[in-house]
Amino acid sequence: MAKKIRLGLLFGGRSAEHQVSLVSATSVMNALNRDKYEVIPIGITPQGQWLTGDQSLRFLKEGRTAKDLLSFLPADPTQKALLLQNHPHAAPQKLDVVFPVLHGTYGEDGTIQGLFELADIPYVGASVLGSAVAMDKILQKQITNQAGIPSVDYLWIKGVDWHNPTESEQPAITHQLARKSREEVLQAIRERLGFPVFVKPPNLGSSVGISKARDEVELREGIETALQFDRKVLIEKAVPHAREIEVAVLGNEHPKAAIPGEVIPSNEFYDYDAKYVDNASALKIPAELESELLDFIRSVAIQSVTAVEVEGMARVDFLVNDETKDVYLNEINTIPGFTSISMYPKMWEASGLSYPELLDELIRLAIDRHEKKRRLKTVYQPKEDWYR
Length: 388
Ligand SMILES: Nc1ncnc2c1ncn2[C@@H]1O[C@H](COP(=O)(O)OP(=O)(O)O)[C@@H](O)[C@H]1O
Ligand SMILES: [Mg+2]
Description:
- The structure is a single chain.
- The chain is α+β, with helices and mostly antiparallel strands.
- Helix content is 33%, strand content 22%.
- It is built from twelve helices and 17 strands.
- The strands form three sheets. A seven-stranded mixed β-sheet has the order 6-5-4-3-2-1-7. Strands 12, 13, 14, 15, 16 and 17 form a six-stranded antiparallel β-sheet that branches.
- The protein is globular.
- The termini are far apart.
- Adenosine-5'-diphosphate binds next to strand 9, strand 12, strand 16 and strand 17.
């Protein structure tokens, strides 16, 4: 029998989406084919400590930690292994590949991907660049807009400018509000975008810190709320008659898009409660739209991940105006919800790929990308040893 792949499964994390990750990881853990994989659970506490071992998921769910389980991954490519902090003589846990089932900050934003790159361990999902750009809703818009992909009109402002407009010396870049008093900021938003608008911290997920503002009072409140979570704020025109269409994308050089689905939120918009708490939002696969429109959305989803250089997987979310049928890219999620009832795996299931098969494919893609990258040169031999 072939040797089992030693798979490090990471969950939890220093993120507002810690709990969501635990639910996703439980499903992944249960579905991984144990004939193929030896699973090494790695739980990251909300404080950022790493725990390894079979109890780590339970410990995180109970909000506990344990000295004996504390571990770390050295950024040393000759090791490729997890070490126990308090047992330096314990055998290192070799890792063939890792799967970060982490949502939001320090998991989906390129930071942990950077550690895997340094440690030279293949990992599931987008690399440093794609993760970082996809995580930032402003950067993501700038890059996808340049690639000709439509998204909703927007303005953005830095927290420092909102708090101290007179101290700012930087000229504004595209769509940025800088060197303006609060009154001028509010006026610019009112004139260019009108109401209602969506106010978002650009580097979060799960709708944390997002609000819909119908007037200037709510707009001010929304900006203050968003600034509790991020150093910038994105203000976006609200799409009227919005329908939320999601597309699952899978692949490295030749990404494929699954059959799109639709989310019908139980609240006024798809906020945190509608996503996780009240259990009343409906998911429809396939989305009930004309097939030409669905094909168009699938092709834009593939263009979007290509523009942002996201490999492995992504759930690409769109807003469609149901009256005009205008399509807007809303966001690219590089580590989408992964519970067995989440949209990403469900859309693949509807397209003929079961949940365990999807996991196999993601792990294969991780190893394949790593193999190809390894063939690139990391040393350059100059003609002469000029530096001696
Ligand atoms: N411009 C918009 N127009 C209409 N609805 C929006 C808009 N932006 C966000 N929403 C609503 O807010 C939800 C969360 O926003 P989103 O940008 O997807 O953030 P997150 O990354 O937290 O999921 C969306 O699913 C949608 O219901
Ligand atoms: Mg979203």
